[in-house]
Each structure stands twice: as C-alpha cells, then as structure tokens.
C-alpha cells in the first residue's frame, strides 16, 4: 500500500486568522525570527494497489471536489514514502 | 526568506474521527480504493535569516512545545523550497 499526501492551504491572498494567531503567540513564547505562519490541512491517504497516473488523477479530482475548497484553498498532491519513525 | 514546514499528525494508535469521516464519504462520492485517511495540520513558517541547524532546532522545540500536542500527536519538520505555482 502506498501513501499519497494531499496538502491543503489557504490561497496566499486569503486572510489566515489561525496562522496569524500562532505567529503573534510565538514571540511571547520566546520564539523570534518567524516572519509569517500559515496553517492548513494535511491528508494522508493509504491507497490500495499501484499509485499510477490514473490513481493520482483520481486523487487530484478527489482533492479538487472534496478535500479542498478551491475557491479559497490551493492543494498539492504527492506520493509519500512510508513515514519512517516520526519524531 | 526560507520556508520551513511542520506537519502534525495524530499518532497512529490514536483514533482519527475526522479522517474516518472523510474515508467513509469517499465511496459515496465515487472514489474507491482508499483504505485509510488520516487528517492533520500543516504549518508553513517563513523564517527570517538562514535556516541553519540552530534555526531548525528552535523550530523543532517550537513544534514540540506549541504546535503539536506530543501526548497524542507526532510531528515532522522539513525545509520547503518556495512553493512553485500550486495547482
């Protein structure tokens, strides 16, 4: 089984209140040097069978019609190696 | 300015109701062949200055103490090339 990741982020021109809230809190927590923070969604899809072009275009369609609101969000689709031990 | 991405996902052993809701909806929308869906958060941080080891360890600490709840979530940190035109 392969893993495909769909990352969904607000379009750059769309205000991101969640990201701004995180950014404003960072200096109070002692973290300087972060000019901007954007927060979005990450979907990890475990795909049955080979991840060929047909599967990827299906997932692209799925992202476009269901996982992202393409009026205000952009998305990217990429095949992810099975996550090694995450920290 | 460089962009560092922090991906935060629920630990594998933690139930993911949002991911399950997405997974159950997919066949109704005509998308077959997706065995599992996990949903998490993606933070894009625009970092002032060079992203050297010191900056990365600071961001790692930021993720550990603020962006992720490490009791139930795992996170990864990676440097991201400026996003080319997203779809």
What does this structure look like?
By secondary structure, chain A is α+β, with helices and mostly antiparallel strands. Chain A has a domain at 2-14 and 41-80: Phosphoribosylformylglycinamidine synthase subunit PurS (Mth169, Chain: A, 2-Layer Sandwich), CATH 3.30.1280.10. Chain A is 31% helix and 36% strand. The first copy, chain A, has two helices and three strands; from the N terminus they run βαβαβ. The first copy, chain A, has a three-stranded antiparallel sheet. The two termini of chain A are 22 Å apart. The model of chain A has no long low-confidence stretch (mean pLDDT 92).
Structural class of chain A: alpha+beta
- The sequence of SSEs of chain A as H and E is EHEHE
Please give the CATH architecture of the domain at 2-14 and 41-80 in chain A: 2-Layer Sandwich
Q: What's the multimeric state?
A: homodimer
Proportion in helices of chain A: 25-40%
Q: What's the overall average pLDDT of chain A, rounded?
A: 92
Query: What is the CATH homologous superfamily assignment of the domain at 2-14 and 41-80 in chain A?
Result: Phosphoribosylformylglycinamidine synthase subunit PurS
Interface with most residues: A-B, 42 and 42 residues
Count the helices of chain A. How many? 2
Q: Please state how the strands of the largest beta sheet of chain A are arranged side by side.
A: 2-1-3
Low-pLDDT parts of chain A are none
Question: What is the CATH C level class of the domain at 2-14 and 41-80 in chain A, in words?
Answer: Alpha Beta
Which topology of the domain at 2-14 and 41-80 in chain A does CATH recognise? Mth169, Chain: A
* Rough outline of chain A: elongated
Biggest sheet of chain A, open or closed, and with what strands and sense?
3 strands, antiparallel
First-to-last CA distance of chain A: 22 Å
Write down the Rg of chain A.
Answer: 16 Å
Topology, number of strands of chain A: 3
EC number (chains A, B): 6.3.5.3
Keywords (chains A, B): ATP-binding, Cytoplasm, Ligase, Nucleotide-binding, Purine biosynthesis
Pathway (chains A, B): Purine metabolism; IMP biosynthesis via de novo pathway; 5-amino-1-(5-phospho-D-ribosyl)imidazole from N(2)-formyl-N(1)-(5-phospho-D-ribosyl)glycinamide: step 1/2
Catalytic activity (chains A, B): N(2)-formyl-N(1)-(5-phospho-beta-D-ribosyl)glycinamide + L-glutamine + ATP + H2O = 2-formamido-N(1)-(5-O-phospho-beta-D-ribosyl)acetamidine + L-glutamate + ADP + phosphate + H(+)
